[in-house]
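Today's session is about reading a structure prediction critically. Students often jump straight to the picture, but the first step is always the sequence itself: look for stretches that repeat, for charged clusters, for runs of hydrophobic residues. Only then move on to the predicted structure, which in these notes is written as discrete structure tokens rather than atom positions. Here is the chain we will use throughout the hour.
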Amino acid sequence: MSQRGFTLLEVLISLAIFTIIGVATVKQISQIQETKNMTARELDTYNALRTALAVLRSDLQQAFHVRYDDLGTDNKAAVTSSQEAPHTVFDGRKKELIFTSLSHRNFYREKRECEQTEISYFLLKRDGEDSPSLMKRESTIIDSNLYEGGPIYTILDRVANLEFAYWNPKSGKWVDNWNSDGGEFRDIFPMAVRVKLALFRDGRPNLEVETEFKIVNPNNEAYLLEF
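Below is the predicted structure for this chain, in token form.
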């Protein structure tokens, strides 16, 4: 019977083969883990975007408009003469949106709050951040200053672009600005709002989305009841 063992060359060749297999296995595991992490980040991005759009949709669909004729004599006189007075508003710009809504929810019995609220959406680049975030301001009191007051929340991070547009049924076109306090849209809310959002993604093209939200009751026409 032969008692011959492995030669040094055979041992070295075997070690080289095992090393190649080991390196390939580690590389494959690393690639799988990186793919898993990338997929998780993508899911987080899509979930964050979907949540932000759901908040926007809820607020816009419940946009709250009280016509000047229903404000009362004193408030109507103040608003029509451009004086400060509590009233509803829709001030839509290309990069910012301020409006009144019925979307507030009171989860605390001891708080005396209703569903009426002032809302602002805008971009803000915070200290230490590389990109701006979509912010929401909400005030539970509709007062004479519709542009300030209430806490500010972060709705969505890493925003590359934000654009609003507003449907004008008279022209049949989208417009970049809409102000219910003056001009051709005085005392009028838009029928719908178009939102364009783009998010930064690591090593990949920006995630872009465009959608439209209908305002359920813009309340632009007077309704008379006949008995």
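Discussion point for the tutorial: Helices lie at 8-61, 73-80.
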